[in-house]
Amino acid sequence: MDVSLRPVREDDLPFLNHLTNDLEGSGAHQWYGWHDPHHHRRRWEENGFLNDEGGYLIITRDDDRLGFLSWHKLTTSRVSFCYEMGLIVAPEFRGRGYGTHAQQLLVRYLFDHSTVNRIQAATELSNLAEQRALEKAGFTKEGVLRGIGFRAGRWQDGVLYSILRADLN
């Protein structure tokens, strides 16, 4: 599978907006309502979506933009941290394994270029496709997070997954 990751470019901003600020682009599990349409532009101008606290990368195959991955640093103690990651795959590319492969690439990238020991991802309990993708990518299900996220007018339960550096050996 010829999936790769690359930094966000300025011409990706409309694509990011479609995947995050449009119900058809984001999908039922990622739709949180409309937001500031200039948010992505400001963030791109500030740091190109990459800094020491996290970032965004575009998922590509040849010339196609398939979606994007994001991650951010979570402090876990006074001397340690983990990354939490997420992704949105464009509707026309969902269900083909691209998200699973992209998650594997990001995990490898973060373990290769940081001292992080744990990467975690959460999804809604009803998002069975993402749960399967995380498991195929090597993540371990840790448990249910009751009432963790508000979407579609009600509180949603989530599922937490993680992968440790040692899991790749």
Task: Indicate the topology.
Blueprint: E1 4-7, H1 13-20, H2 23-26, H3 39-47, E2 50-51, E3 54-61, E4 64-77, E5 80-89, H4 98-113, E6 118-124, H5 128-136, E7 140-151, E8 154-164
Parallel strand pairs: 5-6
Antiparallel strand pairs: 1-3, 2-3, 3-4, 4-5, 6-8, 7-8
Mean pLDDT over the full residue set: 95
Number of domains: 1
What Rg, in angstroms, do the CA atoms define?
A: 16 Å
By CATH, the superfamily comes out as Gcn5-related N-acetyltransferase (GNAT)
Envelope shape: globular
CATH architecture identity:
3-Layer(aba) Sandwich
The number of helical elements comes to 5
Could you name the CATH class?
Alpha Beta
What fold name stands as the CATH topology? Answer: Aminopeptidase
| Helix-strand topology string | EHHHEEEEHEHEE
Protein name: RimJ/RimL family protein N-acetyltransferase
Keywords: Transferase
InterPro entries: Acyl_CoA_acyltransferase, GNAT_dom, Ribosomal_N-acetyltransferase
GO molecular function: protein N-terminal-serine acetyltransferase activity; protein-N-terminal-alanine acetyltransferase activity
What is this entry, summarized?
This protein has 169 residues and is an alpha+beta fold. It is built from 5 helices and 8 strands; from the N terminus they run E-H-H-H-E-E-E-E-H-E-H-E-E.
Overall description:
This protein has 169 residues and is of the alpha+beta class. The chain has one domain (4-168): Gcn5-related N-acetyltransferase (GNAT) (Aminopeptidase), CATH 3.40.630. 27% of the residues lie in helices and 40% in strands. It is built from 5 helices and 8 strands, in the order E-H-H-H-E-E-E-E-H-E-H-E-E. It has helices at 13-20, 23-26, 39-47, 98-113, 128-136, and strands at 4-7, 50-51, 54-61, 64-77, 80-89, 118-124, 140-151, 154-164. Strands 1, 2, 3, 4, 5, 6, 7 and 8 form an 8-stranded mixed sheet that branches. The radius of gyration is 16 Å and the shape is globular. The model has no long low-confidence stretch (mean pLDDT 95).
